[in-house]
Amino acid sequence: MTSGAPIGILGAGAFGGALAVALAARGPVTLWGRDLRPGQRALPRLRDVDLPPAVTTTDRIEDALDAIVLLALPAQALSGFLSQHAALLDGRALVACAKGIDLNSGLGPVEVIAAACPNATPAVLTGPSFAHDIARGLPTALTLACADEAQAIALQAALSTPVLRVYRTTDVIGAELGGALKNVIAIAAGAAIGAGFGDSARAAIITRGFAEMTRLAVSRGARADTLTGLSGLGDLVLTCTSEGSRNFRFGLALGAGEPFDPAITVEGVATASAAAALARAEGLDLPITAAVSDLCQGRATIQTALAALLARPLKEE
């Protein structure tokens, strides 16, 4: 595996397309999507950006099975996709680009890959990033998490460009949960702003939400310092402060009592339910996570959720 090795990307949504644009600077990229046409240069989810010549588009998965395969698929779709295509994918370096916890199994993306493809090298690419920034060539830093240090170094080299800086870690659990749980807190932050609670409330949610993220991740075996990095705090700050985040925008609509486009994937909704279940299993108190889960499932309103949080006993920080 070299820094210029061919890369296959499965999933031609905004993020998959953006990665194809960025990684084409390193070498050939094959981008797969169910509705892609050979030679297609424009993507519906990535407006105003044309794919460079080094990107080959295809609707045949077999054409995109290079040594490194990026799985640019929603977290809740990953398990089913891998089960369907395990025979083709097993034995390769499979890098998940999803941020979430599988609702059915409670597993993160790397564990989902390992379960479906036991001979693959599973990894996850995560961190503070918006597809439109990556596609425009704006500086972005990401985290590559892989339990195998040697493979992590090789993948780091293969997926880095002059403007896409990839850091590595072997703390897969920390990187996965940081990327997943920040979406839940972003929904809470958006709901606070949408309901008119103000920036001070949002700051409190970010801070206390980060404590919840760390608490759950450490209980699952993560290193606390991983959560202070790009895949945790970095991604949390980005998604809680920008309307470029789908989870934050969903929270805005939730807090304001407005409809939200059901065609837009909001990973934090399923993750909130999965994280709340994990917290109960671990005996952990995650009040913001629980409140978001209740909001998303219609078991609470923004007013009752806030009242419950404010009524909690006073304690030392």
From TrEMBL:
It holds the Pfam family NAD_Gly3P_dh_N. GO terms for molecular function: glycerol-3-phosphate dehydrogenase [NAD(P)+] activity. Residues 7-151 form the Glycerol-3-phosphate dehydrogenase NAD-dependent N-terminal domain. The active site is at 182 (proton acceptor). The gene is gpsA. It catalyses: sn-glycerol 3-phosphate + NAD(+) = dihydroxyacetone phosphate + NADH + H(+); sn-glycerol 3-phosphate + NADP(+) = dihydroxyacetone phosphate + NADPH + H(+). Keywords: Cytoplasm, Lipid biosynthesis, Lipid metabolism, NAD, NADP, Nucleotide-binding, Oxidoreductase, Phospholipid biosynthesis, Phospholipid metabolism. Its main location: cytoplasm. InterPro entries: 6-PGluconate_DH-like_C_sf, 6PGD_dom2, G3P_DH_NAD-dep, G3P_DH_NAD-dep_C, G3P_DH_NAD-dep_N, NAD(P)-bd_dom_sf. PROSITE patterns: NAD_G3PDH. The keyword Protease does not apply. The lineage of its organism: Bacteria, Pseudomonadati, Pseudomonadota, Alphaproteobacteria, Rhodobacterales. Residues 171-306 form the Glycerol-3-phosphate dehydrogenase NAD-dependent C-terminal domain. Pathway: Membrane lipid metabolism; glycerophospholipid metabolism. Catalyzes the reduction of the glycolytic intermediate dihydroxyacetone phosphate (DHAP) to sn-glycerol 3-phosphate (G3P), the key precursor for phospholipid synthesis. It is found in: Cytoplasm. NADPH binds at residues 15, 34, 99, 131, 246, 267. It comes from Paracoccus pacificus. This is Glycerol-3-phosphate dehydrogenase [NAD(P)+]. Its EC number is 1.1.1.94. HAMAP family: NAD_Glyc3P_dehydrog (MF_00394). Belongs to the NAD-dependent glycerol-3-phosphate dehydrogenase family. Sn-glycerol 3-phosphate binds at residues 99, 127, 129, 182, 235, 245-247.
